[in-house]
Amino acid sequence: MKAGIVVFPGINRERDMAIALERAAGHAPRMIWHRETDLSGLDLVVIPGGFSFGDYLRCGAMAAQSPVMAAVRAHATRGGYVLGVCNGFQILTEAGMLPGALLRNAGLRFLSRDCHLRVERADTVFTRHYQRGEVFRAPMAHGDGNYFADEATLDRLEGEGLVAFRYATPAGEFTPEANPNGSARAIAGIYSPNLRVLGLMPHPENLVDPLLGGEDGKPLFASLAEAFAA
Amino acid sequence: MTEVSPALARQFGLNDEEYARVLAILGRTPSLTELGIFSVMWSEHCSYKSSRVWLKQLPTTAPWVIHGPGENAGVVAIGEGLAAIFKMESHNHPSFIEPYQGAATGVGGILRDVFTMGARPVANLNALRFGSPDNPVTRRVVDGVVRGIGGYGNCVGVPTVGGEINFHPAYDGNPLVNAMTVGIAPADRIFLSAAAGVGNPVVYVGSKTGRDGIHGATMASAEFGQDAEAKRPTVQVGDPFTEKLLIEACLELMATDAIVAIQDMGAAGLTSSSVEMAGKGGVGIALDLDAVPQRETGMSAYEMMLSESQERMLIVLRPGREAMARAIFEKWELDFAVIGHLTESGRITVRHRGAVEADIPLAPLADQAPLYHRPIEVAPPPPPLEPVADPVGLGPALLRLIACPDLCSRAWVWDQYDATVGGQTVKRPGAADAAVVRIDGHTRALALTTDCTPRYCAADPRAGGAQAVAEAWRNLTAVGAMPLAITDNMNFGNPEKPAIMGQFAAAIEGMAAACRALDFPVVSGNVSLYNETAGSPILPTPAIGGLGVLEDAAGAVGLALAPGLDLVLIGRTAGWLGQSLWLREIAGREAGPPPPVDLAAERRVGDFVRARILAGDIRACHDVSDGGVLVAVAEMALAGNTGARLAAGPAMSPHAFWFGEDQGRYIAAVADGDALLAAAAAEGIAAMRLGRSGGAGLTLPDGVAISIDELRAAHERFFPAWMDGAGAGPGIGG
After folding, report:
1. Between chains, do B733 and A139 touch, taking CB under 8 Å as contact?
2. Nearest to B235 by CA among B46, B95, B88
3. Judging by DSSP bridges, how do beta strands B65-67 and B74-79 pair with one another?
4. What tens digit of pLDDT does each residue of B426-442 get?
5. CA distances from A178 to A186, B446, B492 (A)
6. Is ipTM over 0.90?
7. What digits encode the pLDDT tens for the residues B444-453?
8. How far apart are CA B109 and CA B217, in angstroms?
9. Best of A58, A109, A209 to disrupt the B interface by mutation (most B CBs within 10 Å)?
10. Do A20 and B156 lie within an 8 Å CB cutoff?
């Protein structure tokens, strides 16, 4: 797997992501500074979590205008794969590569705790090592993760099978208590129409080692490593 | 132009005798800028003039100590060529005036103390004391402080992995915010602050200088009157995004050979960093303030020298490295300016707009700094507590204790701190007695804790000081770590009062005894005095930050109970109720002497427990502290979602056995209780069986059953109910 991690000033989960990718693929990903524009040869571009440009103005808004984002967009247009986690998801929505927006958490506080995600489809490059309907645990750490889109967009996402993960109870039920940030229709992650761009708020990269609390996030990286083996 | 006079000097916090010394050193009346420099360098906050004579009693050396007190932070060797660099520092006064920014900049400041020495910060902790929850101010302060700690730490990407919170009316007008940072560096790549090399450039990097925080160090060296609100302009404003860039840029520069010396601009900003760097190196320094990056127009020399604008560092470079260093800071979009050079004059010379604004000999500024042997008055410890009857029974007492503000779940707080960023957090807050953070690329891990029991210190500061150190050592031991060293944050009232200075002296004495007995030296620290509002002091609070190391992170144990295990209490129990939480919460009294710490037994019992953990015998471990044995068992049950059936205790009042706070004790959950009891007996260590884990609730020795659900509801009630509707604050981000 040839993976690259985009680093904007203020990004802070790039090393966590590199650890998860390296564990799955057996080699370290390329780190891409935000002023670089050459992404050729990469299978997967990852935009990790953090506070790009301090989250000033609006989460992800300034990073979305960074030189590297034109290259990320071109990579996606060529059919390349993109994963955005947390701030990365916010950046992808700000850049118009995924629909909707991430609003302030319903409780108006930063939330760092484990949540549970239900896998809505297990036939994508990102999720083939999960089962459909399977629930896995993932740490969340964000203040602005409340997914919002207009009703028509939400209907379209659901109708076209573009909802990747939803917040759920460990038993897979959707309840208000299990939806920690108040996201519309409990959406935690979504795909682009060609299923090659995935954005999600929680951090599967922080749960790939039994010593650190579990391996619930490992199937996502195993899926990617298998898809891009060789 | 302001006229410099003895009256102005007093306003700046210099007494008449100190001002006379300034006149003698200079041989003339100081300029306003010079008066400002003397007043901040000789403030309690920067000079430790009341505490220095006592701090010398603390043991500061051990074979693993690389740098003790005197540097920006303490440095200890942790094996495999690595060093841990750590320190705790207070931001008490600012956090009462402006809780969010006070706490946020407290985190920012302590981070800089650690990365300025070459370490990548890997963990933050804190020790917080707030006023009574019934005081209407307290909720606003708690909300702002928690948001501020989270807002800063989350953004810089350093996990907040541990801490402690107490409530007491003595903190109503003076909350304590003590922040601790731990970093990792190669042991042979530690950066120090002593300047060297006449002619070498002095470089300013980071944020621009503004008018914020002027005279913050002086503010932090005085009591509050009723005018705390009016002091808001002395509080700094933090920018964690810039701090994150500064960390990355400094670490990038540190990988080169460019740096001679480096120090952050903390309290007293440009003044203390330049004076201390030159003073330690025995050289002079010439500064040209026209070159200082400025956020505002028309700033005077006085304002620039006294500003406490955040996220700034001062660096002495090797000659010819300016261009390379500048390129690094420009890549990270940070200011970089050569603002002076080292001289052989032995003086600090400050020029601004063509005029010399300050010209002070450095040696007397340091050597003749005031040093006070203030009178002390040590109060006798309270008389022994007479037997106290149990008014409610074990079950009701447990449910009340586990729900009280000092013992209830801190999840509401922890949920606002990113504990996992960095991808190395093995034990998160609440999972174990100490946080455990693995070292990237290694199997070894750090164990980290903060501890102090202020009500013990108030009743008997000597016993309380020893207890704080012992509890930190115990918490590290309870996860299986070898305790190495501590940082101390001494929070006390007005040192000019003999009773307060007596508390300080006695606490130091107790701490020193414990440090010596446990081979647990002090390698860094901070003193915060004048924690009084309208003449009313805080409880004496010597907060201890402890650091230990585990050779294998996988060997760390937590406190979560699993079913089918024997619960064994290790250590001696006398049923000590003096100053216990049971006495306060159930009997409604704060009385008696605090539990004494038998330091020899502490060490013997702790070494035994650690050896059994490392041998793999102990599946879960929890030290017995606030609330005693029954609260400790309940906490283990809650963490593991597993109940236990408890047997009757020994021949003493049940409430004294189950809620007494005797020191030096641990509860271990083991597969084979008999084997553990035999091993303890073989080493002459007191141990007894408490019961066996399993089921969905606790069954108490008197037959009362409490379900885990009921316990959890009680445990988790306080914070969300209390804070509900506290409203949104500034920037949560992420």
Report:
1. no
2. B95
3. antiparallel
4. 999 999 999 999 999 99
5. 8, 33, 44
6. yes
7. 999 999 999 9
8. 13
9. A109
10. no
